[in-house]
Design brief:
Layout: H1 2-17, E1 24-27, E2 30-31, E3 36-43, E4 52-58, E5 64-68, E6 75-81, E7 84-95, E8 101-108, E9 114-117, E10 120-124, E11 128-131, E12 140-141, E13 147-150, H2 158-163, E14 164-172, E15 180-188, E16 194-200, E17 204-215, E18 218-224, E19 227-229, E20 234-237, E21 242-249, E22 258-265, E23 270-278
Length: 283
């Protein structure tokens, strides 16, 4: 009975996580200082059931040579100051409230390290969301800004390859187009903490990290931008707590199968893992 209640709570929260909680995220989440990247700004859903009609992204100081792409059916405008692009707006199109979308721009990053924030404003037919809160490790944020960590990546990812392991990875596949929840245990055999900042999978249109919490008797979800894994310790992604949210699941997300997942870390390391796909009942 308890597992049934947990399943009902997850399905309800997963449904609410769509139209009710948009989330604008950025990929990649890590890059080398001074490098040129193609930034993917991903819109998870509309605003409380209303379609997205515009998205504005603020470009932080030090980012140069910003060249946005224009998706079919959308128009583009930019704000410039002293020869530098300080904001990009995509508008004129429409993203259905329950569908994710993506906007891209190439750019050259600053040569100094640290975290860059790209605050975003999401305009919908009814209402808007301002994604501007500074992400902080281990904390859930209501409206986190898209963020990028600048850190020189080693040719071989020493943290992930030498000290981190994934155990018991699995996805809960839900009916229709509902997002799939991902669970696993991440163990750190090293002495220094590792910071998990995201995940990706070819079986998902987008993967985000969430944390389920009791909000006045109802189960709610908040986006999490980073999770600390202490040296010599572990972190569990499990029903009722931290979990991955696989948006727009692909056909490979079928019970009885397996899908690949890559975990992304603050220092630029990547850790590949195999996740089993189970039914909505977790079997």
């Amino acid at each position: 009975m308890r597992s049934d209640i947990g399943l009902i709570a997850f399905v309800a929260a997963a449904a609410l996580c769509g139209p009710a909680s948009a989330h604008v995220t950025m990929a990649p989440t890590n890059a080398a200082p001074g490098s040129k990247i193609i930034a993917h700004f991903r819109v998870g859903h509309g605003c409380s059931g209303s379609p997205t009609t515009a998205i504005t992204v603020t470009i932080p100081p030090g980012v140069s040579q910003v060249t946005p792409d224009v998706p079919t059916g959308w128009s583009l405008s930019t704000v410039r100051d002293n020869g530098s692009t300080t904001a990009v707006t995509w508008k004129g199109g429409e993203l259905a409230a329950d569908k994710p979308g993506e906007f891209t721009a190439s750019m050259v990053l600053p040569k100094s390290g640290g975290q860059l924030l790209f605050p975003a404003t999401q305009i919908c037919k009814s209402g808007q969301e301002d994604w501007k809160d500074t992400p902080m490790a281990g904390m859930t944020m209501k409206n986190p800004a898209p963020a990028l960590m600048l850190a020189a990546a080693a040719p071989v990812a020493p943290a992930a390859a030498a000290t981190l392991t994934v155990a018991d990875g699995w996805f809960r596949a839900l009916p229709g187009t509902l997002p799939a929840g991902g669970y696993f245990t991440l163990r750190n055999a090293g002495t220094a903490k590792a910071v998990l900042t995201g995940a990706e999978s070819p079986a998902c249109g987008m993967v985000m990290m969430h944390k389920s919490e009791d909000k006045g008797g109802l189960t709610g979800m908040d986006m999490v931008s980073a999770v600390d894994v202490p040296g010599g310790g572990s972190v569990a992604f499990a029903p009722g707590g931290y979990h991955l949210m696989c948006e727009d699941p692909r056909p490979a997300m079928k019970p009885g199968g397996h899908v690949g997942v890559t975990l992304l870390f603050q220092d630029g390391s990547r850790l590949a893992a195999d996740f089993a796909v189970r039914s909505a009942a977790g079997k």
